[in-house]
Design a protein that fits this description.
- This protein has about 375 residues and is an alpha/beta fold.
- It has 2 domains: about 5-85; about 90-375, Rossmann fold (3-Layer(aba) Sandwich), CATH 3.40.50.150.
- The protein is built from 15 helices and 7 strands.
- It has a 7-stranded mixed beta sheet with strand order 3-2-1-4-5-7-6.
- Strand 2 (about 180-185), helix 9 (about 190-200) and strand 3 (about 210-215) form a beta-alpha-beta unit.
- Helix 3 (about 55-75) crosses helix 15 (about 340-360), helix 6 packs across helix 13 and helix 13 packs antiparallel against helix 15.
- The chain is globular.
- GO terms for molecular function: methyltransferase activity.
- This is Class I SAM-dependent methyltransferase.
Length: about 375
């Protein structure tokens, strides 16, 4: 009879199950092969759906709810379809120009309809916080930013850098709360920057207050003359391939005694994860870092606090986006998507349905959002 103490030794020889980081070379390669097979199966379903296969949403959700508990709990190594997902890559941001074209520079009218576009809450392409009792998407996004304010301990008069500021929603909302806060927004997306430039000319927008500076550029290349009291980054680190270099850059921009707040999609599994479908169609080179990745990169910045936000929050956000996306078809179908609209619609429906259901699986305890508060080491 095999003793319990001998089981971990045996498991390192077994492919597929358990932590891939501790496998023998043979078991590791077998696990990588199985991951490629899983990815091939997922891509076959995705491509069939994109090309017109009619599959009810309930069937897709049922398939995901059946498979994800097995993968999260027992076979996490199968959630990394490519070798680069598991390790840092050479550049801070991988495929950033391609990402802008595929994802963030889509027709603004379509994105406004899907994400919401209100007086203070501009389109925001990240999780809304629902667990505080939000009744709709707009309120959930306010609650999420209020939580950022609390955890980053933003004070009136702070000079803040928003690394990857999207359409300026977070700066605009925080500027509305603090009359003496200054913001610099860094963004590579030309279309998002154009949206903010229009707001900077709108007297009703807090981006026009003179306290917001927009920098269109890449963290790989950007230089600032000043250092910041606080730095926040919401959602961007899913597109960052090298945390070590990114943290070195952010540390160089942070004042002594300053703080960095990072909000990312994360997985409470031993390794990072990704999806062949999202890599091809939605987030080129996107990866979801495991929950321990940020604290484990502590050369220039160190984590002093962290929080896990249950995946139900992002599930509700993505579900709301899907409903809004479906409801807007008649008004957005004539816009220029660079491809046949029917194909674009099915790509994005599958994306919203797939991710929304994955966040819901296992009651949100494995795939959710991580928040991290960091300071200089």
């Amino acid at each position: 009879m095999t003793s319990v103490s001998a089981f971990p030794t045996i498991r390192k020889h077994l492919p597929i199950t358990g932590d891939i980081n501790f496998k023998t070379p043979l078991a590791y390669q077998a696990t990588r092969g199985a991951a490629r097979a899983v990815n091939t199966a997922q891509m076959a379903l995705a491509e069939a759906y994109i090309n017109g296969l009619e599959v009810p949403d309930s069937v897709v959700r049922s398939m995901i709810h059946t498979s994800m508990p097995l993968l999260f709990q027992h076979c996490p190594g199968l959630l990394a379809p490519y070798q680069w997902v598991l390790n840092e890559t050479d550049h801070i941001a991988e495929g950033s120009r391609e990402l802008m074209k595929v994802q963030y520079d889509r027709p603004q009218a379509m994105l406004n309809q899907m994400l919401g576009d209100w007086e203070v809450i501009y389109p925001k392409y990240s999780m809304g916080l629902w667990e505080r009792g939000a009744v709709d998407l707009e309120e959930s996004q306010k609650h999420m930013i209020d939580q950022v304010i609390e955890r980053l301990e933003i004070k009136d008069g702070d000079n803040i850098l928003d690394f990857g500021c999207g359409w300026g929603c977070v700066p605009n909302y925080i500027l509305s709360k603090f009359p003496n806060v200054r913001f610099t927004g860094l963004n590579l997306s030309h279309e998002q920057c154009e949206y903010m430039r229009q707001k900077m000319q709108d007297p009703k927008s807090y981006l026009s207050s003179g306290r917001f500076t927009l920098c269109e550029g890449d963290l790989n290349e950007v230089q600032f003359e000043e250092k910041f009291d606080k730095i926040l980054s919401i959602g961007v680190f899913c597109h960052v391939g090298n945390m070590t270099n990114a943290f070195q850059k952010l540390a160089s921009l942070l004042k002594g005694g300053g703080r960095v707040f990072i909000h990312i999609i994360t997985a409470r599994i031993p390794n990072n994860m990704s999806s062949g479908f999202t890599h091809k169609y939605i987030f080129p080179h996107g990866r979801y870092w495991n929950y321990d990745a940020v604290p484990n990169h502590n050369r220039d910045l160190k984590t002093i606090n962290r929080w896990y936000l249950n995946g139900s929050n992002y599930h509700k956000t993505l579900t709301d986006w899907l409903h809004r996306f479906d409801a807007s078809q008649e008004t957005v179908k004539h816009l220029d998507y660079g491809m046949d609209y029917a194909k674009f619609r099915r790509i994005w429906r599958f994306y919203l349905l797939l991710l929304g259901t994955i966040f819901e699986s296992c009651e949100g305890e494995y795939n959710g959002n991580g928040q991290y508060l960091l300071v200089h080491t």
